[in-house]
Design a protein that fits this description.
The structure holds two protein chains of two kinds. By secondary structure, chain A is mostly helical. Chain A has 16 helices and two strands. The chains are: A mainly alpha, B alpha/beta. The A-B interface holds A 200-204, 206-207, 209-210, 213-214, 216-224, 281-282, 340, 344, 355-362 and B 15, 17-20, 217-218, 239-241, 308, 310, 329-331, 334, 340, 342, 347-354, 358, 362-363, 365-367, 369-371, 373, 391, 393, 395, 416.
Chain lengths: 362, 507
């Protein structure tokens, strides 16, 4: 019990988890019906799960995917990629362009997605090269595509906002008949598993953190710092392509001006709420993903308590300030002091373990 | 006698989770004395200073200051400063781009409108009074490190300080600069300032200090008049070991002449790098320990960095075991079995936020490859093995390395390279800023490695250390190799002469 508490109180997941818990408790007292999930038949005649929780999970899909990429970029380059929304628009446009030129089959969708990935990875490579080779601050380097990206997306489809229609796309953006869970949720799970496997079976995590914490030292230990930064920027490219493609599939059209607008800020916020230092270094992907769901849950809650949509952003800001301040080093240090002075004596008394068991080596 | 006391700390205890850093320590500082605070890494010196300056709250104990009837409460460095306790750290904490005068007065409050002219005049007065060779208007960055250090001290003194803490002020100074600093310290002492001096250089302690307080494992060993405590006794008090254990170091026997036909483990011809080394030749044989020596800035570090490919190599040929190879970056060097412990541990060695374990396995992991990470159990086993082997004091292998003391951090970085099982290991200042006990351990380790057939290049600014460990010394001046000494020739005097450029005889 004591150990469990100690580990949690030191963990960086403490803040995002307690934020999520707070939202849950708030909604529990407000209206327990907020959590109800029901099976319904949608317009296409398919069975689907409905409820606020499902729509939170579904709505946060793109954000969660981008938060993963943003975490890696932040860790390696000590800065953020603010072009993800624009790159997602480019990737989405490429996706639609390929779909429009062909009869839509599963392999064409796959090809379109690969094309979107390539486009987004080129963007990532461009950003990454500016950051790693030319040593430009990430926010400045990605400002270029941030401002130019949606114009590029405009060209890709000749300025139109074309629609694409196929039941196959609905399988991706909405749901697969017979599985009542919205597909984007499944995609996030699959992507999350993939990323964890990559982290488990490569040294991406170790290298990224080493480069982010001390690039010189990483170099002297044989790590290719430029390469690692490029890789993380290409990964966030893939994330943007995935998010953009899901966005297209959800509504069946690409609007290069509107798709995933302002999502870069939410992605950065998700990283911060996840307890990750925006100055790079150690990271927790879990934290960022939870952060993404916290943001979405907050938005849904605000709508549920009938905050006018024009004012949602202001309310969101208030809550987010609270979360970020709670996670700040100052408050953390205060809590740690509190823990050591108040809690530890109690725990020690309970467990009867001397506080200085180690220390007696010569 | 008791009236002379300016600062008394009684019964000070401080624990951190899992570590008892200080246990009932007493410390007394007299007016107008220079008092050395000695102890190995982790003995509790820094903790004591941090308690005194309000960085850490103490668990028990009292602090009394002259002129205060009651116990003083120090909750923050600002409190300490207001009470007349000032600290000057090893790293200069002033602003290099501001002028000396600005640095003297910045952040000290006072008038809203700053009268630059009067500040300049006051600064000039202070500098003159303390014999500091700097002008009030010159930018701090144009002063030498020693003068910057002295400005920091002058600033502290001008803030009416009664207790001045100098934390490793000499580690980045050369001999001349150290002398200047010492004369400043003596002046201050005559003015009645009590000075707490923390250093790892024993000679300096005996040159300038009046009394010594020794700590070990967070406990007070004792306070001594300097005359009553010869060096060897000080060392054994610090280490808690008898003398024989310390001096049991045997110098490596000089290897016979170079040309005995064996192929050098590493050989360089005309090697030069972008860091500004002049082309140089170098070789080292199996099981040899050699060293680069020379003044700070002579190019000794740049030379070994060139060998490891740490800076961009601009010319030269390199052979490993007789085969011509290309070493363009550290990764190449590692592939050929080279290891390099850098001079600047913090900047070039540590990955501070990562755990001791990750720091130890890093180099070997990189050599194994991106797609083949060690399992957690493997990494744990490696880390535990070396934590035990080198006696690294850490709460666990999961602890972030930045929370370890300097000597233990150094051991961890050493462990990182030992783990790669190198055939040629370059150690640049492995003993800087760490305690005597660890220094001796590291020297022993170097000799042990050589016995096992590893070639080692050992650099240290303490010549005695190099004399003790190396069988051949390469002497550098102004980025050139100016001589090579071996065997009988290796004496302090001979090295000095070679560095100075007199009576050079190539070996």
């Amino acid at each position: 019990m004591a150990k469990w508490w100690e580990r949690l109180s030191k963990s960086q997941l403490l803040v995002p988890l307690s934020a999520l818990l707070l939202l849950v408790v708030f909604n529990l007292f407000r209206d327990i019906g907020f959590f109800s999930i029901s099976l319904a038949i949608n317009n296409d005649g398919n069975t689907v799960l409905q409820g606020n929780l499902i729509s939170i999970l579904d709505g946060a899909s793109e954000l969660a995917i981008l938060a993963i990429g943003m975490t890696l970029v932040t860790a390696s380059s000590r800065g953020q990629d603010i072009s993800v929304g624009a790159v997602a628009a480019i990737a989405g446009s490429v996706f639609v362009r390929v779909l429009r030129g062909n009869e839509i089959t599963m392999s064409v969708i796959l090809g379109a997605f690969l094309a979107a990935c390539v486009a987004a990875m080129i963007c990532g490579l461009f950003n990454g090269a500016l950051v790693s080779v030319f040593k430009i601050q990430p926010m400045i380097a990605t400002l270029i595509l941030f401002s130019a990206g949606r114009s590029i997306a405009y060209w890709i489809n000749g300025g139109a906002t074309p629609t694409v229609d196929s039941p196959l796309l609905n399988y991706i953006g909405k749901l697969i008949p017979g599985i009542p869970i919205p597909s984007p949720i499944l995609i996030v799970i699959a992507f999350g598993v993939l990323v964890s496997l990559v982290l488990r079976f490569t040294n991406l995590g170790l290298y990224t953190q080493a480069v982010g914490i001390n690039e010189k030292s990483a170099h002297l230990n044989g790590i290719n710092a430029v390469g690692i930064k490029l890789v993380t920027f290409m990964i966030i490219g893939v994330c943007a392509a995935l998010a953009g493609s899901i966005g297209v599939c959800k509504i069946g059209l690409i609007n290069h001006e509107k798709i995933l607008l302002d999502i870069e800020m939410d992605a950065i916020l998700a990283v911060a709420i996840g307890g990750n230092a925006l100055g790079g270094g150690k990271f927790s992907l879990k934290g960022s993903v939870i952060g993404a769901y916290v943001i979405q849950a907050l938005t849904t809650t605000l709508y549920a308590i009938k905050v006018p949509s024009t004012q949602v952003k202001a309310y969101k800001a208030i809550v987010i300030i609270l979360i970020v301040v709670l996670g700040s080093p100052v408050i953390k240090a205060y809590l740690a002091r509190l823990r050591d002075s108040k809690l530890r004596p109690i725990i020690n008394r309970l467990t009867r373990k001397p506080a200085n068991a180690m220390e007696n080596e010569s | 006698m008791e009236n002379d006391i300016v600062l008394s700390m009684r019964n000070i205890s401080k624990s951190f989770p899992g570590v008892r850093a200080l246990h009932q320590v007493d410390f007394f500082l007299k007016k107008g004395e220079i008092h050395a605070l000695m102890g190995e890494n982790g003995a509790g010196k820094s903790t004591l200073i941090k308690v005194l300056t309000g960085v850490y709250p103490k668990d028990t104990g009292e602090i009394h200051l002259e002129g205060h009837q009651k116990e003083v409460v120090i909750k923050s460095p600002q409190d300490a400063q207001q009470l007349g306790i000032s600290t000057v750290y090893q790293e200069i904490t002033l602003c290099p781009n501001l002028s000396v005068a600005e640095n003297m007065f910045i952040g000290r409050g006072g008038d809203r409108v700053i009268q630059w002219r009067s500040l300049r005049n006051r600064t000039t007065d202070i500098l003159e009074k303390l014999n500091i060779p700097a002008r009030a208007t010159q930018p701090l960055s144009s002063c030498s490190l020693a003068v910057q250090q002295m400005v920091a001290i002058a600033r502290a003194v001008d803030m009416d300080c009664k207790v001045l803490i100098l934390d490793e002020p000499t580690s980045s100074l050369d001999e001349n600069e150290v002398d200047k600093l010492f004369s400043l310290m003596r002046d201050l002492k005559d003015q009645g300032v009590g000075i707490i001096f923390i250093t790892h250089f024993l000679e300096q302690v005996y040159e300038v200090c009046d009394r010594i307080t020794v700590l070990r494992n967070g406990e007070l060993v004792g306070a001594y008049e300097i005359k009553e405590l010869p060096r060897v006794q000080l060392i054994s008090k610090m280490m808690g070991k008898e003398l024989d254990e310390i001096t049991g170091l045997e110098k490596q026997k000089a290897l016979p002449d170079d040309d005995d036909g064996t192929i050098p483990v590493f050989e360089a011809h005309g090697l030069s790098s972008a860091a500004g080394t002049k082309a140089f030749d170098f070789k080292i044989r199996k099981g040899e320990v050699n060293g680069f020596t020379g003044l700070l800035g002579s190019g000794r570090s740049e030379s070994v960095r060139a060998i490891f490919g740490a800076d961009r190599v601009t010319g030269g040929r390199v052979k490993v075991n007789g085969h011509t190879v290309r070493i363009a970056k550290p990764r190449d060097a590692m592939r050929y079995g080279l290891g390099y412990l850098p001079e600047d541990r913090k900047q070039d060695g540590l990955i501070e936020e990562l755990s001791v374990r990750d720091n130890i396995i890093l180099a070997l992991q990189v050599m194994k490859g991106f797609f083949r990470p060690f399992s957690k159990a493997e990494a744990e086993a490696f880390a535990d093995k070396y934590i035990k082997l080198l006696g690294i004091k850490t709460a666990s292998s999961d602890t972030p390395i930045k929370s370890l003391s300097g000597g233990n951090q150094q051991k961890a970085i050493l462990a990182r390279w030992l783990l790669t099982n190198p055939r040629y290991l370059i150690l640049d200042e492995p003993t800087r800023g760490i305690d005597v006990g660890t220094k001796v351990e590291i020297q022993k380790l170097v000799l042990k490695l050589a016995e096992d057939g590893v070639s080692v290049t050992f650099i240290s600014s303490e010549i005695e250390e190099m004399l003790r460990t190396c069988s051949r010394l390469i002497v550098m001046r102004d980025r050139n190799i100016v001589g090579e000494l071996r065997g009988e020739e290796m004496t302090q005097a001979k090295i000095m002469h070679t560095i100075a450029g007199e009576a050079v005889q190539d070996g």
